[in-house]
Every structure is written in C-alpha cells, then in structure tokens.
Amino acid sequence: MSASEDLQLSIPTTGTAGSPKSHVVYNIHIALPLRSYVLSKRYSEFADLHSSLLATTGVAPPAPLPPKHFIASTIQSSSLIEQRRVGLELYLLSIRDHEDNGWRSCPEWRQFLGLPVYKKPSGFINKGIGTPQEWNDVLRETKQLLQITRTHLIRRTEASSVSESHSESAGAKRALVSAGIKISNMASSLETMEVPEGEKRRRRDLVEVLKQERDGLEILSMNIKSQSPSLDRSPPHARNMKSPTRRVFGAIKETEKTRQLDNSGLLQLQTEIMSDQDSHLLEFERILARQKELGQAINQELSSQHQLLSETDTDLDRTQTRLKIATKHVERLKQGNN
C-alpha cells in the first residue's frame, strides 16, 4: 500500500506476554481498505526494525525510536509503558506520513506490518526546499500544524467520551509528525540555500524555536489526560463507592460553579483550569518567540545599515582626498600658464 491514507496505524493498547520471560507487548492496530488486524510486537522488534531500515536506506527514519531504559524496569512502570507506547506510535506514523517512500518500500517495514513485500525498495524522492519563498511557505504551514496540534490537545481535555478523546489524540499526533518532518526539511535545506549569512542565521533561529515548540507540544500530548467524567479509570470497587455528600471548606467561599460539585468534581474542575492555564502558557511562549524573531530581524537590519553607513563614510573620505589632489593639480596648471 503506497498511499499513506490507505494504511491506518495506531497503538492504542499494550499487554504482557510470558515467553520466554515476562515482557511488554505493544498492540499495533492496522486497517487496510479490505481488512483489519492486530499485531503484538515487543520493543526489541521495533529496535530490530529501526536498525534494518537504517542499514537498508542509509537514512534514519524521521522520528527517533524511544530510548531503552537500563535502570528502571519498563514492565513495572505504567508511566514508562505509556511513554514508550506513544513514542512507538509516533515512530510508525512518521514513516507512514513522510513524503519519501524509501522506508515504506523496504521489505523489513512491510514484513513488520504483515504487508505484501516488494522485491526492490523505491529510492528516496528528497524534493527538498529550493528557494527562500518555498522555505517561507513551509514555515507558515509548520506554524499552522503546531496551532492545529494545540487545538486538538485543548479539545482532548474537553472530550466527553473515550472515542472522542482518542480521535483528538490521533489528530494531534498526525499534526506533530507532519510538523516534525517539515522542520527537518527546513533545517536541511538551509545548508544549500543561497541566502546572505545573516538571513541564514535568522532562519536557523526560527527553526530552533519551532523545534522547541514542537517538543513542548509532544511532551504535553504525552502528559495531558482527558478530563471527561466518562473516562474514569479508577478501580471498579472505587467507582461503586458513594461520594461524600458534604464537604468542609472552612473559610473558602463557595461559587455557583463549585456549589453542586463533590470532591471528585472539584478535582476535575481544578485539573481543567490547570490545563487551560497550560494552553495559555503555550500561547504566551509563542508570542515571546515572535518577539524574539522581530528583535533578531531588527538587529540584522541595524547591522546592515551600519555596514552601509561605514562603507559610505569610507567612500566619502576617498572622494575628498581625490578632490584635494585634483584641486592642487589645477592650481599648478594655473601657475604654469601664468
């Protein structure tokens, strides 16, 4: 399946297996136009896939493989399992959505996903970004993708069902993967793009800001959990327990928003407020990044103007010197004629 839209990939769940010894497996849900199936893979199989793709194509996949944990045991930590699950899903999606078909056409990739194997892998397209205008267009598209990611994450915190939460998470992941690919292309194209050195530095700073923003959103997407009441993950015996009907506030004043909430409702409201504050902080970070860009652009312009003034001053000194010499020659000619 060469078209990425015909292959749907996700890793929504994990499990454990006991042979040869207890380990975590990641359940890859694969949907094709005519069939759907699930493959359970352990982390070492992902690592083998990564090594094979790198050896076959000579180019590392667009997203890094989640690191191996040498100190903490993954199987004993649900948070480490969840972080690795998200990272492995992003790894697969980055290969599926990349504009170059080289990794997807490798036999190792197709065997890993149980797809038909082609005899020869297709070469990389490597369209690149040729002109400064194309670079600016990709910059604008990348900023739009990051904004789309923020929108999905905000909607995810407001999701009222499990399916809605998963849908928003998938949308955020797709936008993050696409943004990462574009940022990588922007950075590599600057090595060969013919622009002044000052402009190249400014563009590198823009790429660095985008990288930091994308990394921040990726961390946020891994940490934010939906606040919908229907997504209660507490044990069954805890859910069946009756919530206390009265709450003690002391000197804290009730509001219309909190009056009808029990303890769990208050905790949920507080978490929603904190998530909203996080989104505002991200927006503030984006504004600061823009201010930094403007400051760097102004500094570059001032440096250019200062250089022009220095060159003009030097030319003026030379012209005055030549004018003095010419004046002396004229005076000598006059004296000789007299």
UniProtKB/TrEMBL annotation:
PROSITE patterns membership: PX, T_SNARE
Gene Ontology molecular function terms on file: phosphatidylinositol binding
InterPro entries in alphabetical order: PX_dom (IPR001683), PX_dom_sf (IPR036871), T_SNARE_dom (IPR000727)
TM region positions: none
Highest taxon listed in the record's lineage: Eukaryota
Subcellular location: Vacuole
Pfam families tied to this protein: PX
Domain T-SNARE coiled-coil homology: 271-333
GO biological process, one term: vesicle-mediated transport
Alphabetic keyword roster: Coiled coil, Vacuole
Listed GO CC annotations: fungal-type vacuole membrane
Domain PX: 4-120
Entry-linked SUPFAM superfamilies: PX domain, SNARE fusion complex
Function recorded in the entry: Essential for proper morphogenesis of the vacuole. May exist as structural reinforcement on the surface of the vacuolar membrane and be required for maintenance against rupture by osmotic pressure.
Name used for this protein in its record: Vacuolar morphogenesis protein 7
Organism, scientific name: Neolecta irregularis (strain DAH-3)
